[in-house]
Write a structure and sequence with these properties.
The protein is an alpha/beta fold and 98 residues long. It has a single domain, classed as 3-Layer(aba) Sandwich (Rossmann fold). Helix content is 36%, strand content 21%. The chain has four helices and four strands. A four-stranded parallel sheet has the order 2-1-3-4, with helices on one face. Strand 1, helix 1 and strand 2 form a beta-alpha-beta unit. Helix 1 crosses helix 4. The longest helix is centred in the first third of the chain and has 16 residues. The chain is globular, with a radius of gyration of 12 Å.
Length: 98
């Protein structure tokens, strides 16, 4: 299976994306999903990563269509209701668990 890359973005690219990264990785692991690379960046750095990105998860308001990949609202990951975000990632990337 081809590896997929998730780009997590927020304003500063530190605390918020770090929290989202842990929750996404844990959620994928719980579902037996492997082969996913999770990167973090500021929103300003998206153009530098977009060619290697399959999906963006953002704590900021980004519009679907602003970039060539799907965008998912990552706020639920920060409020403790992130399982829906993980399920959305799995569905949009057509990932399979073990």
């Amino acid at each position: 299976m081809e590896s997929k890359t998730i780009l997590l973005v927020c304003a500063a690219g530190f605390a918020t994306t770090s929290m989202m990264k842990v929750r996404i990785q844990d959620g994928l692991e719980e579902r037996g999903v492997v082969g996913v690379d999770v990167k973090v960046a500021t929103v300003a750095k998206i153009p530098y990563f977009i060619d290697q990105t399959d999906i963006i998860v953002s704590s900021l308001s980004l519009e679907e269509g602003d970039y060539s990949v799907p965008i998912i609202n990552g706020i639920p990951l920060l409020t403790g209701k992130g399982s829906g975000v993980v399920e959305e990632i799995i569905a949009k990337l057509d990932l399979k668990g073990s």
